[in-house]
Design goal:
two-stranded parallel sheet; 4-stranded antiparallel β-sheet
């Protein structure tokens, strides 16, 4: 932390309006990471701070805006919350039921207009864990309400019930992976075309 602190202190001596950092918490222990993120947030109140990171936890902890760049192109730009909303899990409801059968529960879930689909995460004779995906992640509230009403009508014993925010790593992979796979396929095709 000392080296990074000295580097940041040197950068701040001239009171720049913009500060650019590369992987500012790389190699730091959890306490040092917390201190660095706090410092970045505090400085961000009066300065523009741009930093690159591959640690998506950093984005949630220290950024007011995130830009995802894939092979030199901006492929996403928004607040961390806006990017998380692009996740397949955004607005999904995870629930654990006691003593319920997977087939019967999924049959009832299929009747919910606000649910796109459901998946069983775990099932045994005592517990059933599911994730139910909304038809529209932007309006996840109706799904949670409809699930709660259905659970009451069906007398399901709910042990856990939570609405998911979405995950930045999932968004990052979905945005960049298809391009990366396509790029690899093109490179493989080009390599195959080169005469030996």
């Amino acid at each position: 932390m000392l080296f990074r602190s000295v580097g940041i202190a040197q950068a701040l001596v001239h009171d720049p309006d913009v500060l650019i950092l590369d992987e500012p918490t790389d190699g730091l222990d959890p306490n040092q990471k917390h201190e660095m993120r706090t410092l970045i947030r505090r400085m961000g109140e009066t300065k523009a701070i741009i930093f690159s990171t591959h640690i998506l936890e950093e984005v949630d902890e220290a950024c007011s805006r995130a830009i995802i760049i894939d092979r030199g192109r901006i492929v996403a730009n928004g607040t961390p919350a806006e990017l998380r909303a692009r996740s397949e899990r955004a607005g999904a409801v995870s629930l654990v039921l006691a003593g319920a059968g997977a087939e019967a529960v999924q049959g009832r879930l299929a009747t919910l207009e606000s649910a796109a689909r459901s998946e069983v995460l775990h099932a045994d004779e005592r517990h059933l864990a599911l994730r139910v995906y909304p038809r529209d992640a932007a309006v996840a509230g109706p799904l949670a309400g409809a699930l709660a009403e259905l659970a009451v009508r069906e007398s399901w014993k709910i042990e856990e019930f939570r609405t998911e925010e979405g995950r930045l790593d999932e968004v990052f992979r979905s945005i960049t992976l298809s391009d990366t796979a396509e790029h690899k396929a093109q490179r493989a095709a080009q390599t195959a075309e080169v005469p030996a």
